[in-house]
């Protein structure tokens, strides 16, 4: 655990996440989230689908963006892990190679996000994270990202710039996949903050499991049609409180 990881997972980081509910606003409107029990079920479902994908992408982006000290820990379509460990660190990717690798990873994020509304929300948050990340953790890999990368990809670059590991990046992504929606539910339903905090805290073992899987396995593709549907209904809704 490092201060950089705490900063990256802090909801006060001005990256725009506060404007998004992760599907909770529409779930509340549909009656799917109405009390602590239904919130816990929704958060767990989100963690094990969208959260798992975000964790895998963030870990892969950290691997690509790191200078070789973390490379090879995360198998991915764009950064295959070596068949055997080496005593020497592999060289950092060239600038053009990193651009191509991160673009390919961003395309993998697109492929794992069927909903156009969720794609837009992810890129909005990714752009916001790049802005704050450049100021907080100046690093050359920021220049290799597209203008509005998917949020998990930007998160992985931020983690690498902050000296974190792929496992750290995966943990931050997994945690953020439930912490933001939990806070949104608290605001929308006027829930007791202590109760919501307890709901989130009880997900710690599952968050750790998702983060562990992200660095042990390839990029997951655990989409959830319910989250896609909620996002598409929400984006055309009038008078919504959150952007997504």
Automatic annotation (TrEMBL):
Q: Which domain of life is it from?
A: Bacteria
Keywords carried by this UniProt record: Chaperone, Cytoplasm, Nickel insertion
* Pro residues composition bias: residue spans: 77-93
InterPro entries, sorted: UreF, UreF_sf
Question: Could you tell me where this protein is found in the cell?
Answer: Cytoplasm
One Gene Ontology CC term in the entry? cytoplasm
GO molecular function (one): nickel cation binding
Which Pfam family would be a valid example here?
UreF
Stretch list, region Disordered: 64-95
Which family does the record assign? Belongs to the UreF family.
HAMAP family, alphabetized: UreF
Per the entry, what this protein does is: Required for maturation of urease via the functional incorporation of the urease nickel metallocenter.
Q: How does it assemble?
A: UreD, UreF and UreG form a complex that acts as a GTP-hydrolysis-dependent molecular chaperone, activating the urease apoprotein by helping to assemble the nickel containing metallocenter of UreC. The UreE protein probably delivers the nickel.
Q: What is this protein called?
A: Urease accessory protein UreF
Organism whose genome encodes this protein: Geodermatophilus telluris
Mind giving the lineage of the organism this protein is from? Bacteria, Bacillati, Actinomycetota, Actinomycetes, Geodermatophilales
């Amino acid at each position: 655990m490092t201060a950089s990881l705490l900063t990256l997972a802090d909801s006060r980081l001005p990256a725009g996440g506060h404007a998004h509910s992760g599907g909770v606003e529409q779930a509340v409107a549909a009656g799917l989230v109405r009390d602590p029990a239904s919130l816990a079920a929704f958060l767990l479902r989100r963690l094990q689908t969208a959260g798992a994908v975000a964790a895998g992408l963030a870990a892969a982006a950290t691997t690509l963006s790191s200078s070789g000290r973390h490379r090879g820990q995360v198998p991915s379509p764009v950064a295959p892990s070596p068949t055997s460990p080496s005593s020497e660190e592999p060289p950092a990717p060239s600038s053009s190679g990193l651009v191509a690798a991160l673009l390919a990873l961003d395309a993998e994020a697109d492929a794992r996000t069927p909903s156009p509304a969720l794609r837009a929300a992810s890129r909005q948050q990714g752009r916001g994270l790049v802005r704050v990340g450049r100021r907080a953790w100046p690093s050359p890999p920021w220049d290799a990202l597209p203008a509005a990368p998917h949020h998990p990809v930007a998160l992985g670059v931020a983690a690498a710039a902050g000296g974190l590991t792929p496992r750290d990046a995966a943990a931050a992504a997994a945690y953020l996949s439930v912490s933001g929606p939990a806070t949104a539910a608290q605001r929308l339903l006027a829930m007791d903050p202590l109760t919501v905090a307890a709901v989130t805290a009880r997900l710690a073992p599952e968050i750790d499991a998702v983060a562990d899987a992200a660095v042990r396995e390839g990029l997951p593709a655990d989409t959830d049609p319910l989250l896609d549907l909620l996002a598409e209904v929400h984006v055309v809704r009038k008078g919504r409180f959150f952007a997504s």
